[in-house]
Amino acid sequence: MTDHPVNGLDDIVHQRVRLGILAIAHQARRVEFSYLRAELDLSAGNLSQHLNVLDKAGLITIEKGYEGKRPRTWIQVTKGGRRAMHHEIATLKALIQRLEATVT
Amino acid sequence: MVCKPDGVTYETTPAAGDPRHLLTATRELTLRVRRKQRAAWLPLLVFAAATLAAIPFYRYGHPTRHCSSVNGGGQVCTVYPTLALWYWPVALLLAYIGISWFYVHRARQRGVCSRVRPFVVFGVLAVVLATSGEFWSIDHPAFLAESLHLGPSQTTSVLFRVASPAGVIGLALLWLAWIERSWLLLAITTVYLIVVVIPIFIGSITHPSPWAFLPHVLLGGGVLLLGSVALAGAQRARGRSSA
Predict the structure, then answer these.
(1) Interface test with B, best of A16, A22, A86, A88 (most B CBs within 10 A)
(2) Closest Cα to residue B225, out of B45, B99, B94?
(3) Contact assignment for B19 to A96 by CB distance below 8 Å
(4) What is the pLDDT of residues B50-75, one digit of tens each?
(5) How far is it, in rounded angstroms, from Cα B182 to Cα B153?
């Protein structure tokens, strides 16, 4: 293992949709499934798969319930999820810096 | 090509694995969520209404004088409008309950919550502290004059205005501007704080007009009201341009 920033990338978080889910859930205190679907323009099945990956990794919590007769699924980012997202963004920035330094 | 509103692609594109693209897309998503969460026009409107509704309490609430003796003879007195003193904590606490309800209701409707809780907690704590401080200072004018040397000076006046209900509203709005990352709200709050902290007098000190409070209340309420309209307008314009 070298100290190259690419080694710091987390396979779970370093995925466009999952990073997007974490970014949205981090900004909002809680976010609803349908909001995520609309923002990320995904099918329900596709989004569910990504949510399961994040949930299994302990990066988000999923809360299912009802509001009146409407089923609602709320997603909340965990402390670990917040840490993972910050780490990913810092790594991406370091990677960009490294790439720019290599090019120039 | 997906996320149409801001022209940022979020699904599979040839450059999607590029760290720059990933960072830009994440930043754009965050900004879009922030814009959807913003609703500071409502707190401004509620505070403007509370400010303007205070007018009869200032005008018709009979002023009360509380005096105490100081060392070396003489007395120090505080004069305060009794009804307004009780009006503000009740009005502000009701305002925060209303604002919380609005944000929760909006979050349920839109499916995205906002971090408004710190603003409400800060606001309620500030109201409780400022009200306790005000009641305490009314009961201990001698302590303020002798121990803290708070005489009738410009500094004392500014200090009391910052701790006044209007000042407390301003401080809470600064906090909201930070939470919503809104430069416009920050600018409005700065203007509001300048207006409510700088003293304005009409009439004379010896024979003050019963309406002496009015310019301050109207200016403060007016800035909040105009600010609310400006924020709502800006939000609507942004919503139209991104649609």
Answers:
(1) A16
(2) B45
(3) yes
(4) 999 999 998 887 777 777 777 767 77
(5) 35
State whether B10 and A41 contact (CB < 8 Å). Answer: yes
> Whole-model pTM above 0.90?
no
Contact B12, A9 (CB under 8 A): no
ipTM of the complex: 0.82
- pLDDT confidence of A66, banded at 50, 70, 90? confident
- The verdict on B112 touching A (C-beta cutoff 8 Å) is yes
| Cβ pairs A/B, distance under 8 A | 72
Distance CA B68, CA B77 (A): 6
Mark yes or no for CB contact A24/B30 under 8 Å. yes
Tell me the C-alpha distance between B92 and B120, whole Å. 11
Q: In 3D, which of B166, B160, B158 has the Cα closest to residue B47?
A: B166
Query: Has residue B1 got a pLDDT over 50?
Result: no
Of B94, B145, B103, B101, residue with least CA distance to B124:
B94
For residue B16, pLDDT beyond 80: no
List of E strands, chain B? 63-69, 75-81
Predicted confidence band at B49 (pLDDT cuts at 50, 70, 90)? very high
CA A46 to chain CA centroid, Å, is 14
Q: Which of B111, B113, B117 sits opposite A34 (nearest CB)?
A: B111
A35 with B30: Cβ contact below 8 A: no
